[in-house]
Design goal:
5 strands, alpha/beta, five-stranded mixed β-sheet
Length: about 280
């Protein structure tokens, strides 16, 4: 590569580094907001789980269709990926986890969160029942409400026996775990509060009020999963762009050294030639 080509290559890499550094800064900024959303969703979900624990003391309510286990029916999976790449192994990990889950447990219907999820299963020739885009990076409560309504309508038809959401759980930004969460039928979470401590929280104990509460609970579970997934995605994007920036800077340093070396050789050669010409004269 001659000096002119090297200089052009250096400028090209510098432009790329500017882009990756900007994307890193944007992801870092969004990560703090995503963490706050996660923490808020955890607190809200914890309160709802405490109320749910109180319901397990009331046998007359446990026959509700959203609580009663079903022996037959289809299994539906909602898989949360990203809308685009540039996020390290985020998509690969959740897709590998989903493929393993489907292999072990089976799935009759698959619903996709994110454009990459849609493209992944389209390439595999697996038809999707529905897909949701523009929810992966910055989920909102309205998104969760829309998805929850779809799930509740689907489950109420009696066609399905269970519904899962597969997402990336993020206890901390540095710890990410692909996870399967069972949405329906609703079951008592392991980390729910003590039923004895929660007695009296749920009033009035009517079917209508229970249906409304369970709808809110499903929405909160979906929102918490999407918020978790978004924080994992942004952390992966931040670290991926930081690594790309560092690699770009290292490449610039290497190319600059080669350019300077070739330029120095060229100057030295010109001086030698000029000296030889003067000596001959």
């Amino acid at each position: 590569m001659n000096p002119h080509e090297l200089k052009s290559h250096i400028e090209s890499v510098k432009d790329t580094v500017k882009i990756t550094r900007a994307m890193q800064m944007i992801a870092t900024s969004k990560l703090y907001r995503a963490r706050e959303k996660c923490e808020n969703s955890y607190r809200y979900l914890k309160e709802l789980r405490n109320i749910l624990a109180a319901l397990w003391r009331r046998e007359e309510l446990l026959s509700h269709p959203l609580l009663r286990p079903r022996e037959t029916g289809k299994t539906a999976l909602f898989i949360a990926g990203a809308d685009k790449g540039l996020c390290g192994d985020f998509n690969h990990r959740i897709f590998d986890f989903a493929d393993d889950f489907i292999l072990k447990h089976g799935a009759d219907k698959i619903f996709a969160f994110g454009q990459t999820t849609r493209e992944y299963y389209s390439k595999k020739g697996i038809p999707l029942s529905n897909y949701y885009i523009h929810m992966a990076q910055e989920p909102h409560a309205f998104d969760a409400i829309s998805v929850a309504n779809d799930i509740l309508e689907m489950f109420s038809s009696g066609e399905y026996k269970e519904v899962y959401i597969l997402y990336t759980r993020t206890p901390t930004p540095y710890t990410q775990e692909p996870t399967a969460k069972k949405l329906l039928p609703v079951s008592l979470p392991e980390n729910a509060g003590s039923p004895a401590d929660s007695e009296g929280l749920f009033e009035p104990a009517t079917v209508a009020s229970l249906t409304n509460f369970l709808s809110q609970y499903i929405m909160a579970e979906i929102y918490s999963a999407l918020a978790d997934s978004a924080m994992a995605l942004l952390y992966k994007r931040m670290t991926s762009m930081r690594q790309s920036t560092e690699n770009g800077e290292a490449l610039i340093a290497e190319l600059t050294a080669r350019y300077n070396h070739q330029r120095q050789e060229s100057i030295t050669g010109e001086l030698i030639n000029a000296g030889a010409a003067a000596f001959r004269e």
